[in-house]
Amino acid sequence: MTQPRQRKVRDFRLPQIYAIILIDVIVGSAVGPILPEFVKGLQRPQLWLSAGTALFLGMQLFSAPLLGKLSDGYGRRPIFILSSVGTFLADCFLLPVRVGFYFANRISDGTTNGMYATVRSAITDISPKDQLFKNLGIEGAIISLGFVLGPAVSGLLLTTFDVVQGNQAKVVAIMAVTLSSVNMLLSWTLRETHPNPPGVDTSALKNELIQSLNVQLLWSRLAEKDSKYQGLKQLVLMQLALTFSIGYYNYFVTFASFGELHMDAKAISYFFMYFGALSVVISYVFYAYMADRINQQRAIFWLALIGVPVLGSYGLVGSSLVGLYILITIDCLTLSLIQGLIEGLMAQLTTDDDRGEVFGINQALQGLGSFATTLVFGALSLLDLRLPFAWFAGCLAIVAWLANQKLKKL
């Protein structure tokens, strides 16, 4: 007697994770162009914008390792749910267009933004080894797509309903709250990717929080992991230097709004639409068809080396929109591809036992790096709005140097 054939259940977890990422980035990129509205009228508005960015990114210093540890102990799904609720509350804070609520948003959203360590862990959990670079590359492409759709949806909303300038921030904030509620539903229905999580002792969580606020201990933990996964520390250092350099993503709205370009919210939205659309296409082609077939270490070196003059040239673009668009095109072909390569190499070194913890430590150091680079470019912008790009270019040169050092050891 033949046994009845079992029906194969399709696994939708990866597309669902991608959807959560997409909506999260759409929300973040949609509200970006309206943030100057919260600090207009204050003296030195670029300083207040930089302070909010530093607060948002600095919160990850303690939240990323904590959320990573929780995801290893209790599973990835609870962290997705917690983060989606935090983002929803953060967007609610934007409804009153007041500077105090702007900082409340930065604290809430920054704390739960540590979710991205869990995102990469979840993708790695369910990705076959031969598709890991591809799946992480698609994650990068989706993030770029979100940067296209966010400003596009925001701009379409404001244009369709002909919203006057004084009401634009509130209308976009309402849209962000609505989309964040969709992400809460998607996170709640996500099936777990980390099988049989062992749980975490309460004292261990307290210790994790204390350690995550101690940079020296954070570095010691990385060194310990490096002894287990040789080469991990150098990859984290490379990503830290890259974090310093891509601080220009957070600085650009300030530079474009208050610099020689004098771009308004619509012009900034169009710029990010072009940047994101081009980045999506290039990233997808690169990670889907090329990343697994090349020497990733060597690619990081050359992409960083070529990207150095590109970053420096942003500060010299003056009021030329044509020059700006030429630079961003070269940007998409070079330095924008580096992060996915580093993350792919890092993912290959980890195991199911502590993958969330490793990515959490990495994201905490990135949070520290983002906080530090924001303080630097905030201070430099007070002297001259063009100066931060010299800092960004110098940090990317360090990425190229570290990649070259790693090549010499091979």
From TrEMBL:
Topology in the lipid bilayer is annotated as: Multi-pass membrane protein
Q: Which GO terms describe its molecular function?
A: transmembrane transporter activity
**Keyword Transmembrane in record:** yes
Task: Give the highest taxon in the source lineage.
Answer: Bacteria
- Entry's InterPro entries? MFS, MFS_dom, MFS_trans_sf, Sugar_transporter_CS, Tet-R_TetA/multi-R_MdtG-like
| Record field: transmembrane | 12-35, 47-67, 79-104, 141-164, 267-287, 299-317, 323-342, 363-383, 389-404
Task: Report the subcellular localization.
Answer: Membrane
> What is the recorded function of this protein according to its Swiss-Prot or TrEMBL entry?
Resistance to tetracycline by an active tetracycline efflux. This is an energy-dependent process that decreases the accumulation of the antibiotic in whole cells. This protein functions as a metal-tetracycline/H(+) antiporter.
Q: Which family does it belong to?
A: Belongs to the major facilitator superfamily. TCR/Tet family.
Which PANTHER family would you find in this protein's record? MAJOR FACILITATOR SUPERFAMILY (MFS) PROFILE DOMAIN-CONTAINING PROTEIN (PTHR23504:SF15), MAJOR FACILITATOR SUPERFAMILY DOMAIN-CONTAINING PROTEIN 10 (PTHR23504)
Name of the molecule in the record: MFS transporter
